[in-house]
Design a protein that fits this description.
Order of helices and strands: EEEHEEEEHEHHHHEHHEEHHEHHEEE
Mean pLDDT: 93
Structural class: alpha/beta
CATH class of the largest domain: Alpha Beta
Strand order of the largest sheet: 2-1-4-5-6-7
Number of helices: 12
Number of strands: 15
């Protein structure tokens, strides 16, 4: 899949920006603060509903404006779709092919995006949610049966939590369906973890920084015990706390090096390298499963990686054959490892110009 056209309105420095993108590599060059990262941010927001630079979308809307709009024409091997997102103070409006869309997942299905940026090491350093999201991204895009089960579990979890706080007599009617949905989600995640680590371990052999690397997926309740039984056992504690303490919403993918927590033994640079290799594995296995590469967003590689690691990463990403959008302060930071067909853009003063 790839983005043919991208349109941005009222995002940070951009009042209006429109660009035709190459299905291969697109390089955005500009000074710090010119807005080159905002191009990548726009694509990330359209694909996920979140910014990788800000907690709230309201904070990235251009000062003095009431709405933020991002639209893209996206193509794959079979079809072309028009995706749109509009953020106003009173909420979010989504559109797919000129019709209203109910969920962000309706857009994400046509826009698989992997983003590498300054805080990508949060995949290692951050909390369990970061790594749950890692597994769930892969499952959403390669395993169609996963997302309906995940949605069902989230809905049942919300209802059980409401019963814990307001009407505990309803709990027996929620425990069994919640446990069934939760165990299905856990099975999907374990399958994803097994598939991804098999490929990741092969990639790690190219480096010396991760001896004895392993990961294990804790399902979110006592391993080997039925989730239904665990919910029964913890019901009183859950009532006191007002939320469900057991289930796949508490799952954790634990990363270890030589039997120790990777966060404790790896340097910041090593954590960043490991995170990038995990994301590269995500892209490669997605490409293998779907016969189509995800869109890769790379923000300011020179600031994050030395020359050897830049060369290694760009070599493997270009081998995927998919669309890449990357930023650089100077094109010489990355151009030695990019093909001659790379489409170059200059970002300056809130405008984007193709060279």
């Amino acid at each position: 899949m790839f983005i043919e056209q991208l349109s941005i309105r009222h995002l940070r420095a951009f009042t209006a920006a429109d660009m035709d993108l190459d299905p291969g590599i697109n390089l955005f060059v500009g000074q710090n603060g010119a807005g080159k990262t905002s191009v990548l941010e726009a694509v990330h927001v359209l694909a996920t509903g979140r910014s990788f630079r800000a907690a709230q979308l309201d904070t990235i809307r251009q000062h003095g404006q009431t709405d933020l709009t991002i639209a893209a024409r996206v193509a794959d091997r079979h079809s072309t779709h028009q995706l749109g997102l509009r953020k106003q103070p009173d909420g979010l409006t989504l559109r797919l092919d000129a019709a209203p869309a109910d969920r962000l997942s309706d857009l994400a299905r046509y826009l698989a995006v992997i983003t590498l940026h300054a805080d990508s090491d949060q995949l290692i350093q951050g909390g369990p949610q970061q790594r749950r999201r890692y597994l769930d991204w892969w499952l959403f895009h390669v395993q169609p049966e996963f997302f309906p089960q995940w949605l069902r579990y989230q809905r049942l979890l919300k209802q059980r939590n409401a019963a814990l706080r307001k009407d505990p007599s309803q709990l027996p009617s929620w425990d069994e369906p919640l446990a069934q949905a939760g165990e299905r989600v856990a099975i999907f995640r374990q399958q994803a973890a097994d598939e991804l680590v098999r490929h990741l371990e092969g990639r790690l052999t190219e480096f010396r920084d991760f001896p004895g690397f392993a990961w294990s997926l804790h399902p979110g309740w006592t391993r080997g015990e039925a989730l239904f039984d665990q919910l029964q056992r913890t019901r009183m504690r859950d009532r006191e706390q007002g939320f469900t303490s057991q289930g796949p919403h508490r799952a954790e993918l634990r990363l270890q090096v030589m039997g120790k927590d990777a966060r404790e033994v790896l340097s910041r640079g090593q954590q960043k390298t490991l995170a990038i290799l995990m994301l590269l594995t995500l892209a490669e296995t997605c490409r293998t499963q779907k016969q189509e590469a995800p869109i890769i967003l790379l923000d300011d590689l020179a600031a994050e990686l030395d020359e050897a690691h830049r060369r290694h990463l760009l070599h493997h990403l270009t081998q995927l054959g998919g669309q890449i959008l990357l930023t650089a302060l100077d094109k010489d930071e990355v151009s030695p490892w990019l093909p001659a067909s790379t489409r170059e853009f200059v970002v300056r003063d809130g405008s984007v110009t193709m060279l």
